[in-house]
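Researcher: Please translate sequence to structure tokens.
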Amino acid sequence: MQGGDAKRWTAVEGSVIRAALAFGKLPHDKLPPATEQLTLAPEEARDEALRLARLLGELAITGDHQAAWTGIVLKDSGDAIDVGDIRYDFYSGAAGIAVFLAAVAKVCGDDESRELALAAMRRLANRYRLIGMEPFYDQIGIGGYTGLTSIAYGFDVAGELLDEHAYRALAVAIAAQLPDSTIEKDTGHDVLGGLAGAICVLLRLQRISGDPRLLERAIACGEALMSKQDEKGLWSFMGGAPLTGFSHGGSRLRLRIWPAWHVDGAQGTSPRWPRSAWITNAASSTRIMRTGPTSAPCLEKRSTRFRLLHNGAHGSAGIGLSRVTLGLGQQFPGVALERDIALDTTIRNMPGHVDDLCCGSFGRLMVLDSAGARLHKPELTSTARHWAKHLMNHAHETGSYRMNLGSQEMNPGLMKGISGIGYALLRIAGHHELPDITALT
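Model: Translation complete:
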């Protein structure tokens, strides 16, 4: 093992040991608030995103005009960690990294990031063609963040940012060919790995391409999802409990049923998408959410325990994001109340114990930034930029963003790593020409 390689694997070994010791525990103490008002300037965000893109370039394994990365991975059993090739998906794999690098290339005009993004996409496309759809599904499922449609989403977003139409066409081809057997086999239901996420991606691609096959596949996913409700009109997640959050719960499902009803063109007259179904599920997603003067949304029952959560995957930030994205505050006053309570709770519980997009601080800040833009509330944007600058400063002082497992060098991915942090910094600083990936738009 030569020079740089030996240094890298020494760092890998140390990161894995630290991750193993931290496994199952809160990885970091809560970061104290800043002592002064801060703001993230666009040029600071671009410089930091470019720095993180360069780090990804140093960490990449390249050859034959293709790129891959290694990192800390959670085994499928969920009770052990390992080091290995990162996966293909949007959540923590090559598709998500390619989207971040494409964003840097677009915003910063950086050719190096462009070439690395294309190298990642080239390898991903080759792997898909080699493995095939059914085996690919068996490996990763169907969902919009971790499944087969997440790869289509990554190809489409990166292709859009890089003006590479061949990859956008590949995204449509992957999504339009989802077989009925794949849809019927899904047991995840949620946005990360299940049917709800697949619907998100299918509807995005349908709006952009106009391909009628995508709408037909979205409706098939919707019908399968509706058929899997329990007697209370809820869906079970993560061990059987109905949840309220965005990634795994009813908030994302509520968000998906509404636009699917509209895109279908029936406006409540179709037996496939009756308006009453959306209203029923809108109520279902909040039936287990407590709101009121205490501003304490998102009490989720698991067995006999209750947990108050504030992140995007399970908690108030995710609930707030779904209500903001729906944009139905005037038609349904209850939605506006839930939204405002969720956003307030998110702010009061900043920052999280980690910095990532999935369950950490930057995911919450992306929600606040999106809410500020959609609701024309500059105070939310200012709050997001304040905390983003504070978290960035802390990372510079300590040498790493706060990861759930190990160091930032061993977490290259989007939703759990540095790619997502870099992407969030660009969006929060005002680059809203980049898609809002927290809502799969």
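Researcher: Any highlights?
Model: Strands lie at 61-63, 66-68, 70-74, 81-85, 299-302, 305-308.
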